[in-house]
């Protein structure tokens, strides 16, 4: 079984102020040509088809052209697609029933109840059947209805619980297609500025539940990399979507599964973007004279090192470079300013943030201080109370006699996401 593993197309994305329509059409056209040449048994797209949950008409048109071009290849190549965190599950899932009859298998939505399971696509080759399990991007709250209203405690637990429900036939070859931030196996993952992550790593998912599959086709990270094993891989993006990716080499990944128990083989094929992303550093005079001719059409980030600020540097640079992403200055003056402006920032606790909400209202601020003072007295007396209890106490003091339900709702909303607010069944609330 040979299949092309793609992910994170991000159709409709912009690079700084530049529309990438031409660049994306060019690189997707190259994927079509590789598919024509390599004749894979399947093409897997592991999420983030679009860059936005509500894609533009232009972006939808590009993806429509891409699928149409792939479908026109003979013999027909099955295409397997899941939704990513940038996609709208409902929009990706549109017409999936009809498209499935044409060999385009889409899993936009997760199971919605205890009777539903992951979409499974079974393909055949000379070694027998290969089961592809399609797992779209998820958050713990997305699978609450699957587990009788109980929300898994973390992203990692949600993935684990969902996969444990699947009756995977380990005598056959199995592939999981999934879009999450997988970590583990003692390996540090490589990330880029073009990716979006949750603060504190709450969206990290332990890779262990994937290890029973013969291959894990991952999506989400924009750098091509494996997670612990050769058979657990991110293919990365087809294009460079940030300056931080300028030194990366983007490639197309072809995965080969032979008979059960045989190591997976992954081949890479070079991609040739319409324009590259590059960084240049030097004085204005140096850059205007020594830039290679082939770089003038690329997307460029420029750092000027002139000690004296040049006159209208961007206007002069635009005479040489046609796609300037940014122009920065790096000299003794700018470095001194950065050192002068640097501050040590301390992260405030949720309780401190909460108290700060009342700084503009003397009456409420006083009540907050009163509640906090009572809590401090309890600590001096040897009692212990956690932050959630502190927040509850402050709420009760503020709300006594005020009847401000709007304030209560806003407060609950603020702290519920952090799992710190515990609603008290009190007459005041």
Helix content: 25-40%
CATH topology of the largest domain: Purple Acid Phosphatase, chain A, domain 2
Mean pLDDT: 85
**How many helical stretches?**
12
Descriptive terms for the model:
12 helices, Purple Acid Phosphatase, chain A, domain 2, 29% helix, six-stranded mixed sheet
Summarize the structure.
The chain has three domains: 2-270, 4-Layer Sandwich (Purple Acid Phosphatase, chain A, domain 2); 277-341; 350-416. 29% of the residues lie in helices and 22% in strands. The chain contains twelve helices and 19 strands.
Task: Describe the protein.
The structure is a single chain. The protein has 429 residues and is an alpha/beta fold. Helix content is 29%, strand content 22%. It has twelve helices and 19 strands. It has helices at 21-38, 57-71, 89-92, 96-101, 155-164, 284-290, 313-317, 332-341, 350-356, 362-380, 387-399, 405-416; strands spanning 2-6, 14-15, 18-19, 42-46, 79-82, 104-107, 119-125, 128-135, 173-179, 181-183, 204-206, 215-219, 225-227, 229-234, 251-256, 265-270, 277-282, 299-304, 323-329. A six-stranded mixed sheet has the order 6-5-4-1-15-16. Strand 15 (251-256) and strand 16 (265-270) form a beta hairpin. Helix 1 (21-38) runs parallel beside helix 2. It is globular, with a radius of gyration of 27 Å. The N and C termini lie far apart (60 Å).
Layout of SSEs?
Elements: E1 2-6, E2 14-15, E3 18-19, H1 21-38, E4 42-46, H2 57-71, E5 79-82, H3 89-92, H4 96-101, E6 104-107, E7 119-125, E8 128-135, H5 155-164, E9 173-179, E10 181-183, E11 204-206, E12 215-219, E13 225-227, E14 229-234, E15 251-256, E16 265-270, E17 277-282, H6 284-290, E18 299-304, H7 313-317, E19 323-329, H8 332-341, H9 350-356, H10 362-380, H11 387-399, H12 405-416
Parallel strand pairs: 1-4, 4-5, 5-6, 8-9, 9-12, 10-11, 12-14, 17-18, 18-19
Antiparallel strand pairs: 1-15, 2-3, 7-8, 13-14, 15-16
Helix pairs in contact: 1-2, 10-11
């Amino acid at each position: 079984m040979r299949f092309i593993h793609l992910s994170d197309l991000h159709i409709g994305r912009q690079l700084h102020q530049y529309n990438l329509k031409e660049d994306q059409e060019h690189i997707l056209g190259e994927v079509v040509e590789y598919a024509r040449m390599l004749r894979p048994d399947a093409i897997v797209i592991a999420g983030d088809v679009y860059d936005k949950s509500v894609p533009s008409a232009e972006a939808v048109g590009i993806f429509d052209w891409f699928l149409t071009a792939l479908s026109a290849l003979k013999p027909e190549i099955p295409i397997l697609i899941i939704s990513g965190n940038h996609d709208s599950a409902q929009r990706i899932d549109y017409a999936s029933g009809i498209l499935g009859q044409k060999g385009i298998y889409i899993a936009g939505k997760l199971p919605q109840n205890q009777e539903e399971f992951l979409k499974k696509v079974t393909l055949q080759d000379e070694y027998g059947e290969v089961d592809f399990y399609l797992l779209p991007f998820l958050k713990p709250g997305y699978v609450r209805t699957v587990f009788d209203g109980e929300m898994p405690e973390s992203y990692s637990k949600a993935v684990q619980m969902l996969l444990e429900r699947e009756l995977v036939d380990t005598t056959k070859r199995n592939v999981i297609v999934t879009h999450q931030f997988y970590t583990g196996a003692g390996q540090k993952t490589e990330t880029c500025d073009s990716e979006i992550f949750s603060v504190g790593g709450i969206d990290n998912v332990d890779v262990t539940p994937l290890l029973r599959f013969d291959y894990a086709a991952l999506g989400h990270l924009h750098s091509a990399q494996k997670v612990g094993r050769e058979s657990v891989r991110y293919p990365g993006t087809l294009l460079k979507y940030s300056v931080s990716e300028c030194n990366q080499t983007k490639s197309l990944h072809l995965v080969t599964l032979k008979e059960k128990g045989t190591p997976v083989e992954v081949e890479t094929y070079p991609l040739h973007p319409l324009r590259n992303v590059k960084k240049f550093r030097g004085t204005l005079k140096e850059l205007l004279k020594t830039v290679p001719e082939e770089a003038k059409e690329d997307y460029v980030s420029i750092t000027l090192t002139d000690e004296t600020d040049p006159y209208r540097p961007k206007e002069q640079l635009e005479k040489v470079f046609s796609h300037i992403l940014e122009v920065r200055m790096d000299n003794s003056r700018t470095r001194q300013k950065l050192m002068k402006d640097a501050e040590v920032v301390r992260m405030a606790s949720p309780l401190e943030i909460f108290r700060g909400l009342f700084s503009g209202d003397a009456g409420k601020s006083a009540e907050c201080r009163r509640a906090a003072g009572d809590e401090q007295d309890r600590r001096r007396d040897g009692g212990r109370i956690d932050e959630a209890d502190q927040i509850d106490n402050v709420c009760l003091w503020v709300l006594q006699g005020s009847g401000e339900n709007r304030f209560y709702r806003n407060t609950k909303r603020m702290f519920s996401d952090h799992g710190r607010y515990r609603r008290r069944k009190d007459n005041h609330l």
